[in-house]
Please model this.
Amino acid sequence: MNIILLSGGSGKRLWPLSNDIRSKQFIKIFKKEDGAYESMVQRVYRQIKETDENAKVTVATSKAQISAIHNQLGEAVCISPEPCRRDTFPAMALAAAHLTDIQGIDPGESVVVCPVDPYVEKDYFEALKELSIQAEKGEANLVLLGMAPTYPSEKYGYIIPEKADKITFVKTFQEKPTAEKAKDYIKQGALWNGGVFACKLEYLLRKAHELMDFTDYQDLYEKYDAMTKISFDYAVVEKEPRIQVMRFAGQWKDIGTWNTMTEAMEEAIVGKGMMDETCKDVHIINEMDVPILAMGVQNVVISASPEGIFVADKEQSSYMKPFVDQMDGQVMFAEKSWGSYRVVDVETGSMTIKVTLHAGHSMNYHSHKNRDEIWTVISGSGRTIVDGMEQKVGPGDVVTMSAGCRHTVIAETELKLIEVQIGEDISVQDKEKHELE
Amino acid sequence: MNIILLSGGSGKRLWPLSNDIRSKQFIKIFKKEDGAYESMVQRVYRQIKETDENAKVTVATSKAQISAIHNQLGEAVCISPEPCRRDTFPAMALAAAHLTDIQGIDPGESVVVCPVDPYVEKDYFEALKELSIQAEKGEANLVLLGMAPTYPSEKYGYIIPEKADKITFVKTFQEKPTAEKAKDYIKQGALWNGGVFACKLEYLLRKAHELMDFTDYQDLYEKYDAMTKISFDYAVVEKEPRIQVMRFAGQWKDIGTWNTMTEAMEEAIVGKGMMDETCKDVHIINEMDVPILAMGVQNVVISASPEGIFVADKEQSSYMKPFVDQMDGQVMFAEKSWGSYRVVDVETGSMTIKVTLHAGHSMNYHSHKNRDEIWTVISGSGRTIVDGMEQKVGPGDVVTMSAGCRHTVIAETELKLIEVQIGEDISVQDKEKHELE
Model:
């Protein structure tokens, strides 16, 4: 099975765990059988491999997410990077071209396309395999997966099938309806459109060439920012007469808000937390070092990270976006290709961060115009290079870098350090990359 | 007016703002007219001075609180320090001896004794003045302030007066009753016993000499840890036949739990916080740098500090103590005579703290056996002394101290620094003080 996983943009609906640079699919919140936690993207990737160990998985994502995906899925995972955001149709076309032109997959093969964020079980991936086989048959140009509705939701588009068979042609599509209309659709046997489909690669590529002017993957990649933003539904699905739908009645939860996220959690408490016996239906998700204590509250989600603290009625939590938009955007935690950092103190004229580098990784060789920096290594071993001068470092070693001075650190083992930044105008923009001499 | 303020022990019922070393009376939570915040102890001290600018105030407190009291009330405030905790009777006796033997106050004068933590207005202090004058008259040996009950509380002892007059003799005392019994007492005109009284200093001292073997203040101070723990109520009040009570019907709130604390707060949000319009009767008290967002919750208190995060139904919050007792006691924030510190990162083998020194203050000259330390000054200016070597420091300067090395920092202006501690066995106990050479 060939599968394109669409790993979407940053989401603010799971603040404070997701933010402008960390998307919800990277939050490690789902408990595995071995007791460790995994993120949405790790869970889905693991489930695909468990269902079909030969599955060829390609993650279609923005450049900003590449580091996080490699950190979570390993260096070997295949990524089709989008140079910029251009909605789903150009993204799928680029990924399809990546499969044929870069990975050398036969355009006659089928491909399954699905978002990375639904919370699903093994039967979903078995269904994707069937979907792939059905697309290969060529009875239709597109085969959608239609989720059997569990309530008259206003959040989804609806697919009205011709017959009640498991696989049948699509009669019509309906936009997100009112609950009233949704009830009516469901009576007609309608299914939710979850944006999951299979088709032959050559079909996707043909549609791409019809609508966009490019020769091959490399050409499309280079022209990508000139492409029109357009969704796959609008560009292809709504205009295609030969579409089948396959009915899927297994678990499919769209994890976009704290309400649905907590429904999918195995445990009430992730991280340091306690609750008294009068708490009911409370979830605590705590990424801080200090404990959360909850008493006497019901139907509430409590989440804390270095970005902030969120306490909400679960239903109400889905309306958080306008409030999160108001917050000033100082990013307090970030994952990078080389590791991660966390802001531990902010003062006028200084900022202190904790930096963790993965073994074998290093920062870019870089300099800052407007700040001095002081590193104190707290664990691990490695080497620093400052203006070309190399030095071995370990716990307790201090390296000072004046503004303008070029520097990097190369971790031999996992290496942690405290970085104190001193300057009147500290900003993440103040960074110039250099080649190592 | 002579007044002894009893500044009690550490309280866990206002966690995470109070803890083993920071008591509730030092939390800056009450908004003044000028917009700044003050603590219970600052509020009470200010109110006393506004009522009687010549009032002689003595704060009776444990050694551990001396720094916090000087930080909040200034260096001039008179403190009677208790060498160790020995309940209220020895504490009052020691304070009374301090007034006569150290401050030279005539034992014939009266003194008012009251706890530092009720939330009261100016009329309360006017009542204390009257209480003091009444005690001076000598009609009774003790004059209690009796609070007019606002509901049949089970939390307080009750005073049954002989008559309904404002000032009258006490008929009997009643222990904390059931609500049923409390109703009955209130029908009889009973008043709450808030532990507030006035008497002549010589009366307090006579009782002290009757029950404890000491000569003067210095002698009592030195023998203090050999004294029996006994409460003033048990040792004196219950045995004294000549007690008057003065009725007080003004505001008097006992701020011992989050429930009563939030009732006394002028504002719903102290610190960085936001709530949506579906929140009702919610209080946010946030000492962290990051924001708290509350949505759709009612009758809830949310409090965050470097010690932890508390989310509770207000009623339920009064049962927090057993949960707080379970938490491991790493103190994450502390006020010292020279300033304050906050733990910003804890790792195996290292700890990072932010230290703030007041202008003109310095740490003790000290050393550690089991850890190296590295200071990076982030703001202000001062001098460090390391093994006798003095050095001027300012922002960006780094000072490294190996284990065993003696060190201090003297702040000229307010000075802030990041201290990284490196060692396998980091502990607050690992500290040896030295004389400056």
